[in-house]
Amino acid sequence: MERTYLIKPQLDEEYPIAVYGKGVYLFDSSGKRYLDAASGAVTANIGHGVEEIAAAMQAQAEKVSFVYRAQFSSAPAEKLAKKIAHLAPGDLNWSFFVNSGSEATETSMKIAIQYWQEKGMPTKNRILSRWVSYHGITMGALSMSGHPSRRARFTSLLQDFPDVPPPYCYRCPMGLDSGSCGNKCAKELDMVIRRIGAEHIAAFIAEPLVGAAGGSLTPPEGYYEEIKEICEHHNILFIADEVMTGFGRTGKMFGIEHWGVIPDIMAVGKGMGAGYAPIAAALVSEKVMEPILQGSKSIMSGHTLSANPQSCAASLAVLTYLEQKKIVEDVDAKGKYLKDKLLVMKVEFPFIGDVRGKGLLIGLEFVEDSASKKSFSKSLNITAFIVKKARDYGLLVYPAGAGMDGSSGDAVIIAPPLTVKREELDEVIELFRKVMKDVDLEIKSLVRG
């Protein structure tokens, strides 16, 4: 094999070369077809090869693909910000465009801290977050992430922001039964704030559904209503990390809308550009912008390619397509169909410990013993085995963390493009059942061994 000069995720692994994508399918250089039941990294919300998006990108490229944000604005950036203001809940009317979800959460953190500085309260400079969470790989975003395996190499450089237990109903951190717990995991936020002192805390950040770190952990009813009430009581901002859940993924335009809560700042990405161009944003409320507009009149953040007109044109086309085709309206029904099929499979394969999620963001956690919820030994690499077997069958699923420590369990996410058809969901189930049969044989052989 010809040597590579590209640094890939696993340096000793050989990756297929993707050459073509259409709808929910990708094709490699050998002609093999893959059903993209992961939307890449839960990103390709409208599927691959949509002609309207390619046409919009070409039209913009023929005008201008780059201007620097300190010298010019652009029509695509202005139009995109206006569209998002209309889509976002409440008074989240301001957009700060960046290039990735990590940059969006880090910018959100910076804005929250600056908000209190502009109000004359500079000691409010700490961000609270939860364990079993992931907010990005840049240093500020990683400091907010309660993802031990991703933090491990850089612990000495990171802030100790995670301090709150996750809403992990399958493995309740309080040892309580879901539905009768009174959202005690939410109430823990109040206790943490009192221990640290609200005068030191700028904001609390949370993913509406926990993605990569927890395999689509889904909080119970009333959880975010209580979180928001606690934040308001202590005069702390609430940041919703909608990088994975935003723009229809959970069956509503934004995941937090399932709880009827309006955050002060919202980080978005992934589905915002649907993989057609790198773009993300921090969405900021009128409340948070007001002291900045009255004070320094400048947010201390930004990158060379922030508000890039080419990326903004792509995102604008994606969100227009999402609206015009009424794609989000069908996501809930598709998600329930997929989840019901997976719940049937859970009975067939007892090592599927939990099936959870909303819309087309479905997580499955795998356990050695369903009664005790004992995780498999890490040495077995069950998640990696599932992902590889699925790819062998032409099915792409997304690996995720699990376990109360965020690293001892096994999970995957199934999150096909929102445009997926019923027959394609049936194909996902058919292929995934083949994978589960292989897992069953593998487990039995290991037990015999």
Give me a quick take on this structure:
The chain has helices spanning 39-42, 51-61, 75-87, 101-118, 139-144, 148-151, 184-196, 223-233, 286-294, 309-324, 331-348, 382-392, 422-448, and strands at residues 18-22, 25-28, 33-36, 94-98, 126-130, 162-164, 201-206, 237-242, 265-268, 280-284, 352-358, 361-366, 395-396, 398-400, 410-414.
Structure description:
With 449 residues, this protein is of the alpha/beta class. It is 36% helix and 16% strand. The protein contains 13 helices and 15 strands. It has helices at 39-42, 51-61, 75-87, 101-118, 139-144, 148-151, 184-196, 223-233, 286-294, 309-324, 331-348, 382-392, 422-448; strands spanning 18-22, 25-28, 33-36, 94-98, 126-130, 162-164, 201-206, 237-242, 265-268, 280-284, 352-358, 361-366, 395-396, 398-400, 410-414.
Detail the topology: elements first, then pairings.
Blueprint (H helix, E strand, L loop, with lengths): L17 E5 L2 E4 L4 E4 L2 H4 L8 H11 L13 H13 L6 E5 L2 H18 L7 E5 L8 H6 L3 H4 L10 E3 L19 H13 L4 E6 L16 H11 L3 E6 L22 E4 L11 E5 L1 H9 L14 H16 L6 H18 L3 E7 L2 E6 L15 H11 L2 E2 L1 E3 L9 E5 L7 H27 L1
Parallel strand pairs: 3-13, 5-6, 5-7, 7-8, 8-9
Antiparallel strand pairs: 1-2, 2-3, 4-10, 9-10, 11-12, 12-15, 14-15
- Count, helices: 13
Tertiary shape: globular
Multimerization state: single chain
Task: Report the mean per-residue pLDDT as an integer.
Answer: 96
Cα-atom Rg, whole angstroms? Answer: 22 Å
Profile the largest sheet: 7 strands, mixed
| N-to-C SSE string, H for helix and E for strand | EEEHHHEHEHHEHEHEEEHHHEEHEEEH
Number of strands: 15
Low-pLDDT runs of 5+ residues are: none
Structural class: alpha/beta
Q: Largest beta sheet: what is the strand line-up? A: 4-10-9-8-7-5-6
The helicity comes to 25-40%
Strand content: 15-25%
Task: Please report the distance between the alpha carbons of the first and last residues.
Answer: 35 Å
